[in-house]
Amino acid sequence: MDKKVKILYIEDSSDTQELVKIFLQKIGDIDAYPTAENILQLLSEKDYDLLLLDINLPGKIDGTDALKLIRRDERFKDIPIIAVTAYAMIGDREKFLAMGCNEYISKPFFKEQLIEKIQSILNKKHQKEASNQ
User: Fold this and answer.
1) Span 5-131: which CATH code?
2) What is the domain partition of the chain in residue ranges?
3) What CA–CA distance (Å, rounded) separates 133 from 122?
4) What is the pTM of this model?
5) What is the mean pLDDT of each run of 10 residues along the chain (133 residues)?
6) CA 99 to chain centre
7) Helix (H) or strand (E) holding 84
């Protein structure tokens, strides 16, 4: 990747936030928040390239609620979203993809796995943008 990507990460565990920031420090600038309460406002404040979204979040809005809000909003319906979750049962990946995520990674994960998924998703985004021009 030529330029650093701007990533919004919604994750309630500060330890996981810090780990992902370390994992991605060479490829991206990460803004991390512990809840999805203001997800649409956060997305509107910067032109994020990608959203990493924990599914099991505390508070009024969990990851699936946030996903629905994002996909219903015309401004953000095309932002790539990776579900980052401890849900790792058979069928969970397919469930989250069907709900509107572009990709899925289950915790715990390795640095290389996360980077590979991010690069893959951003390559697809850039190819789609190039074909639309």
Assistant:
1) 3.40.50.2300
2) 5-131
3) 17
4) 0.93
5) 85 95 95 96 95 93 95 94 87 91 93 95 85 79
6) 13
7) strand 81-85
